[in-house]
Amino acid sequence: MNTKQINLKLPKNLVNAAENYAKNYGYRNVQELAAESLREKIFEDNEFDESFSEKEIELIDSIIELSMKKGAIISEEKLNKMLLS
User: Fold this and answer.
1) pTM of the model
2) Half-sphere exposure of 26 (CA within 13 A, CB side)
3) What phi and psi values does residue 38 have, to the nearest 5 degrees?
4) Neighbours of 64 (CB within 10 A)
5) How many CA atoms lie within 13 A of 59 on its CB side?
6) Cβ within 8 Å of residue 21, ≥6 positions away
7) Which phi-psi region, left, alpha or beta, contains residue 72 (left: φ > 0; alpha: ψ -120 to 50)?
8) What is the average pLDDT across 41-64?
9) Which single residue of 11, 15, 34, 64 has CA 20 to 30 Å from 83?
10) Distance between terminal CA atoms of the chain?
11) Angle CA 57–58–60, to nearest 5
12) Which H or E element spans position 72?
């Protein structure tokens, strides 16, 4: 899975709250919390199955990426259609 680093500027009180939340709920760090929060927000409208673990999601992402490289999946539209069927 390709990744891209981004930087966020957040108010100190939000960072403190995020650090506490991450610690209390078993996240490795705020970055992991932020990635999961974004994933939930983005895929919520697409009926994303939240029962998948982080490792399962990474595996699915890898399979999709390889399938697209090999031409097995031609477009995002077709992929969404297959996944939401």
Assistant:
1) 0.50
2) 1
3) -65, -45
4) 16
5) 5
6) 27, 33
7) alpha
8) 73
9) 34
10) 24
11) 65
12) none
Residues 6+ apart with CB under 8 A from 58: 1
In which residue are the tokens 């108010």 written? 11
Cα 13 from Cα 8, distance rounded (Å): 14
Q: Would you give the distance in Å from CA 7 to the centre of its chain?
A: 16
| 24 pLDDT more than 80 | yes
Q: Please state whether 52 falls in left (phi above 0), alpha (psi between -120 and 50) or beta.
A: beta
Alpha carbon distance 61, 56 (integer Å): 9
Q: How far apart are CA 24 and CA 77, in angstroms?
A: 39
Segment 17-28 shows an average pLDDT of 92
19, 23, 36, 80, 85 from 28: Cα distances, Å: 10, 7, 12, 30, 34
